[in-house]
Design brief:
The chain is α+β, with helices and mostly antiparallel strands and 412 residues long. It has helices at residues 7-18, 36-49, 56-69, 73-85, 105-117, and strands at residues 121-122, 125-130, 137-143, 148-153, 159-163, 171-174, 184-189, 196-201, 207-212, 218-222, 232-237, 243-247, 252-257, 262-265, 278-280, 286-291, 294-299, 305-307, 319-325, 328-333, 340-346, 353-361, 372-375, 378-382, 390-391, 394-395, 404-410. The protein has five helices and 27 strands.
Length: 412
């Protein structure tokens, strides 16, 4: 739907262009964020998926978003009402797609219900602050051998290396003028050799999978040969060097064979829509894949996949960052309205949520988070990515930029 690196940024930018005039007038065709025909196809997809996924409410929210973009407020409100009354954690007040509805008393009432059912949660602390205002960071990885973080930059198209105990000594791991990189997104280390893999993507459809050695030297850059639009977003790396990467623009996930230098599309139990976060289990047997409607589990050896069931009054939808921690999935959920960070304890079979713990919600640490990294039982995450201030690789408003904050949470 949206050719942007991250779902929430997509929604914000489209809302900025369009929904500020939602209740006043219809924009001209040249100003519309996307073609109505594409939105109608998206609406049809949502309607087909109703009652065919474990989380019907996630589909209702998706349908409400699409009606809002189609300038159909009554239909948007009807689906939002059913969504909010399911009490799963969706909060439309934090979703710029619905900006044109915020003056509606019915919308305000639904927001009050959502906030009553899910009050503010604030457990995070400040890990460190980076003075670099124009990074627009997107991906975060941790190197236990060096006790350092790697932070990717969308705007400056580079990767920083940040010593955990001395973040003021951050340096360029990959400078922005060295390899003519695209905006850099998800980033992950190969635990076997200390090399670094990253996804890069510009919203004109160009995308690459990047591989650097432990010094930041480029080992390889790989892209798909077909003409269709793609957008590599987040990734995980196996001990054997294989890489699983989400293709948000292409609605696909690929396994990259680092020896053969080839991409193989996964066959999954249902079609994906804007796959984003991805997590690898500690035993490296399973990959969990997040998209707009929930989370699927893919068994690496057999190729079998299945949906993860969220249970009642719960949603797994819209996970931007996704991480495996001691039998739980830690998710930064940006696709449910107001962002939240949650931990989902899974059953022994790994396919059912048995307990949900909301770790951070509607606090100063959920300004606009994207991804994070695990260090033992602590979860470090980007607090204010400022990705809503980026259009392609251009900053929209330089005056509003702020130092980058990294938060930390203690996991259950």
């Amino acid at each position: 739907m949206f050719p942007r690196p991250r779902l929430r940024a997509c929604q914000f930018l489209l809302a900025t262009l369009f929904l500020t005039t939602f209740s006043v007038d219809r924009l001209t065709r040249a100003q519309e964020p996307t073609d109505d025909a594409e939105l109608l196809k998206q609406l049809a997809l949502g309607e087909r998926l109703l009652d065919k996924t474990p989380d019907r409410t996630a589909v209702l929210y998706f349908i409400a978003q699409t009606h809002a973009l189609l300038r159909e407020p009554h239909e948007a409100m009807a689906n939002l009402k059913e969504c909010i009354m399911a009490k799963e954690g969706f909060d439309p007040s934090g979703d710029p797609v619905f900006r044109g509805l915020t003056f509606s008393k019915e919308f305000q009432h639904l927001t009050e219900i959502a906030h009553k059912d899910f009050p503010k949660v604030s457990h995070a602390g400040l890990a460190f602050v980076l003075p670099h205002k124009d990074l627009i960071p997107e991906g975060l990885a941790y190197d236990p051998e060096q006790d350092a973080f790697y932070l990717s930059s969308l705007h400056l198209k580079k990767i920083l290396r940040i010593p955990r105990q001395a973040p003021e000594n951050a340096t360029d791991f990959v400078p922005n003028d060295r390899y003519n990189l695209l905006p850099v997104l998800g980033i992950h280390m190969n635990p076997a050799d200390g090399s670094v893999w990253s996804a890069s993507w510009l919203d004109n459809g160009k995308t690459e999978l990047l591989h650097f050695d432990a010094t930041g030297a480029l080992l390889g850059r790989y892209s798909l040969s077909e003409e269709a639009k793609h957008g590599f977003n987040d990734l995980v790396v196996l001990m054997d060097g294989s890489v699983f990467v989400t293709d948000t623009a292409g609605n696909q996930v690929y396994r990259f064979d680092s020896k053969e230098k080839t991409f193989h599309a996964l066959t999954l139990s249902r079609p994906l829509f804007q796959p984003n976060g991805i997590a690898l289990t500690e035993d490296q047997q399973f990959v969990y894949i997040a998209d707009q409607f929930g989370i699927l589990r893919y068994e690496i050896k057999s190729g079998h996949s299945a949906e993860v069931y969220p249970g009642t009054s719960n949603t797994l939808a819209g996970a931007d960052g996704l991480y495996w921690h001691k039998g739980s999935l830690v998710a930064i959920q940006n696709g449910i309205g107001s962002p939240r960070i949650a931990a989902f304890q899974l059953s022994e079979d790994g396919l059912h949520v048995t307990k949900t713990t909301i770790l951070e919600y509607r606090s100063r640490f959920t300004t606009l988070p994207t991804t994070g990294a695990l260090r033992g039982d602590n979860f470090y995450f980007i607090v204010n990515s400022q990705i809503d201030n980026l259009n392609g690789d251009r900053i929209l408003d330089l005056t509003t930029l702020a130092p980058v904050r990294i938060g930390v949470l203690s996991l259950p």
